Amino acid sequence: MALNKSMHPRNRYKDKPPDFAYLAAKYPEFQQHVQTSLVGRPVINFKEPEAVRALTCTLLKEDFGLTIEIPLERLIPTVPLRLNYIHWVEDLIDGQKQLRRGIDIGTGASCIYPLLGATMNGWYFLATEVDDICFDYAKKNVEQNNLSDLIKVVKVPKKTLLMDALKEETEIVYDFCMFPYLFCFFTKQRGVNSRNSRRPPPSSVNTGGVTEIMAEGGELEFVKRIIHDSLQLKKRLRWYSCMLGKKCSLAPLKEELRKQGVPKVTYTEFCQGRTMRWALAWSFYDDVIVPSPPSKKRKLEKARKPLSFTLPEAGLKELQTKASALGCAGGCPVESVTSLLEKSLTELRVLFKHAPCRKQEQSLFLTAVENTWIHGRQRRREQKRQLRELPRAPQSASLQNTAATTAPCPSTSDCNTKVNVQVAGSPEQNCQTQPVKREAPKEQIEPESDHMNKANTSTDTVMDTSPKEGLTTENDSPLQLLSSHGAVSQFLFKCLLNVMLEEKDVLVELHWVEGQNKDLMNQLCTYLKNTLLRSVAR
């Protein structure tokens, strides 16, 4: 089960995920859906409706003492996400155990919100439903859990929201109402696709009837109808709330409430693994306590949290030995690890330069201009295959080529004039040397891919970083950077890599600076970690 540390603080599954092995041993109907993964962990297939239903029913039975039945052709709720909404309503009404009255519009076959609210807090619920099958199952689930005195399930006409649901109870003031996202997540809203293309697909199957998962006009128009109903009912409810399936709906709905003069408005986020939901609440009462929306400071701190991995003390000696064997200078573990990282970055053609840092630390500023760390093994195999398939040249031609490549160079200056160089400084230094017609030996001209990570650090010159230009000399180290990073106009991302001691271990951190996609930095971090750990394993 995909869980998330950003779940509501009181959610029981936030820090204690369900124990599938224990549940499988206790509940035979759940055991048949549990499989063992390649690493030996018990897992279930969230793409199978039967498995999702078995998990929901088992969690409700184990953790809340509730026995429910859900048809496969109707929406199967996930328990952790529903708990997030219940706990936020607790925050809205400022009290968990007092007698409170709520309305659940579109309760579904499971009737999960009223069942959880009544069981956990003793709340009274008016649960409405338009679908015949959902109504029958919801009523049955309430009765078999002996909660009919707290939950009243009523059948209402289609397109009914709040107005018709409260016709018979004109004198009762309700503390809150809940509109689950099940009306809004998969909506008939043309031209709107809020899911980022870089996000992975949903990990669980979608079930549900048409009345549960679609609303005419889409999510935005549906919630606006709720707002217009609330403008007529006003203080018949202390809090109006609804869950949203798309973040893009939040801003226009807040603007609609502002235009209508609603005095109290707040919102929040619900997180569970890959699943994100947003909730909006408003009130016409002046004395209600308005929970603070998600802290921008907390979200900023979360965004700035670096990626990191630790190299344990047991493997540092092997890394130091390997660094020395490769000719990398540095006796302390931090310097050795940094040298090995520089070697990997050079092989990946990731630009880097040393940045100021504290004592006993090393810091590199990285600029990635192309993704060379994904599918590297596949590319190497393909290159070897292509080399094997190349036709062999005749022996006489091979001898001629060998003679040509081993011939002495007429002059060093003639060889170096093949490379176009720009030096920052006086106008005389910025001129370009005209190329000489004589062909230079291949040994003395570096490949284009090697130019990217090479520079002469003995001077303060700044080299041009265009893909086909560069300069190498015999004194250049392969771990030195060719260019000033500011000269790179197009790049994937930039980050700061820090290597430091943490007690007796070495900690490596990658801090995001800017770029197109943070997932690329995550991939690079994983590649570097695996490269170092493989070195220790060998």
Automatic annotation (TrEMBL):
Keywords, ordered alphabetically: Cytoplasm, Methyltransferase, Nucleus, RNA-binding, S-adenosyl-L-methionine, Transferase
Region Disordered: start-end pairs: 377-414, 426-475
Biased composition (Basic and acidic residues): 436-453
Enzyme class: transferase
UniProt keyword annotation of S-adenosyl-L-methionine present: yes
Polar residues bias spans: 454-464
Similarity annotation: Belongs to the methyltransferase superfamily. METTL16/RlmF family.
Cellular component terms per the entry's GO annotation: cytoplasm; nucleus
Binding site for S-adenosyl-L-methionine: R82, G106, E129
Entry EC no(s): 2.1.1.-
One GO MF term: U6 snRNA (adenine-(43)-N(6))-methyltransferase activity
Protein name (record): U6 small nuclear RNA (adenine-(43)-N(6))-methyltransferase
Source domain of life: Eukaryota
Presence of keyword Transferase: yes
Localization of this protein: Cytoplasm; Nucleus
One Pfam family linked to the record: Methyltransf_10
Family annotation (PANTHER family): RNA N6-ADENOSINE-METHYLTRANSFERASE METTL16 (PTHR13393:SF0), SAM-DEPENDENT METHYLTRANSFERASE (PTHR13393)
GO BP terms in the entry: mRNA processing; positive regulation of catabolic process; positive regulation of RNA metabolic process; regulation of mRNA stability; rRNA base methylation
